[in-house]
Design goal:
There is one protein chain. The chain has about 240 residues and is an alpha/beta fold. The protein has 7 helices and 7 strands; from the N terminus they run E-H-E-H-H-E-H-E-H-E-E-H-H-E. It has a 7-stranded mixed sheet, sandwiched between helices. Strand 1, helix 1 and strand 2 form a beta-alpha-beta unit. Helix 1 packs parallel to helix 3 and helix 1 runs antiparallel to helix 6. Bound molecules: zinc ion. The site of zinc ion has 7 residues, from loops.
Length: about 240
């Protein structure tokens, strides 16, 4: 992570509804960009304490605070393995509610980081209302951070592209992969981060299969030797002076 003294470290922002979402859905991209010297900040809006911690609740005799603490520890471990930096908003889940204070906190983070890109959830998810809410909040905070009239004098952000990571059942979420991102070189790291998520062991194999399938498709669409990939849908048009 040696940056030249004159060059500012580049950053990326991940907005994850629950503390483990970032691991399954974009852990590879986090690891790749961390290796490239980016500061990757992962906002976990909640710990997923009610809705995505079934294994802990089934043990019985646990309190909400204990579940939150366990999920936080797992997320910290997973983020450290990937090379990202978690920030916990602790807004609660199932249901998640985002007040203006949290929205402005996220907008402030955009202005502080000035991310090169943003990763968040799909815009729809009939199985989970926290996920599209996180996507909405990620985008709304981005737009606030772009507004000259919001805390005038602070300096607005540019237009970082927003990528929506793959939901659990893409077809039901009207999500389709527009970017297949090669994570072959970091898949072992992503797998270690999976394994930090002991509360959701039932997903390890599933998301290994997802990465393999997207890898086959990435190879098919590029001719490159890719084994594992992550899929992303874009929100905004790709702006470039080159078509390849
Ligand atoms: Zn989730």
């Amino acid at each position: 992570m040696q940056e030249s003294m004159t060059e500012k470290q580049k950053t990326a922002l991940v907005v994850s509804a629950h503390s483990a979402d970032f691991v399954w859905r974009c852990g590879g991209a986090i690891a790749v960009y961390a290796k490239r010297g980016y500061r990757v900040v992962i906002v976990c809006l909640s710990y997923g304490e009610r809705g995505e911690s079934g294994k802990l609740w089934k043990q019985g005799n646990v309190t909400l605070d204990q579940v939150k603490a366990a999920r936080r520890e797992e997320a910290e471990q997973a983020a450290a393995i990937l090379g990202g930096e978690p920030v916990f908003f602790d807004l609660g889940d199932y249901p998640m509610r985002v007040d203006d204070e949290a929205l402005y906190r996220l907008a402030d983070l955009y202005r502080e980081l000035r991310p090169e890109f943003v990763l968040t959830h799909s815009l729809e998810d009939p199985y989970n209302f926290d996920h599209p809410l996180a996507a909405r909040v990620a985008q709304e905070a981005r737009v606030i951070a772009q507004a000259h009239g919001h805390n005038p004098g602070e300096g607005v952000i540019g237009a970082p592209p927003v990528f929506l990571f793959e939901p659990h059942q893409p077809e039901q979420c009207n999500w389709k992969p527009e970017v297949l991102f090669d994570i072959t070189e970091v898949f072992d790291i992503k797998q270690k981060a999976f394994e930090a998520m002991a509360a959701q062991e039932h997903l390890w194999e599933y998301y290994t299969r997802v990465a393999l399938q997207r890898g086959v498709q990435a190879k098919r669409n590029s001719g490159r030797d890719i084994k594992y990939a992550e899929g992303y849908q874009r929100v905004f048009p790709f702006v470039s002076d080159t078509l390849i």
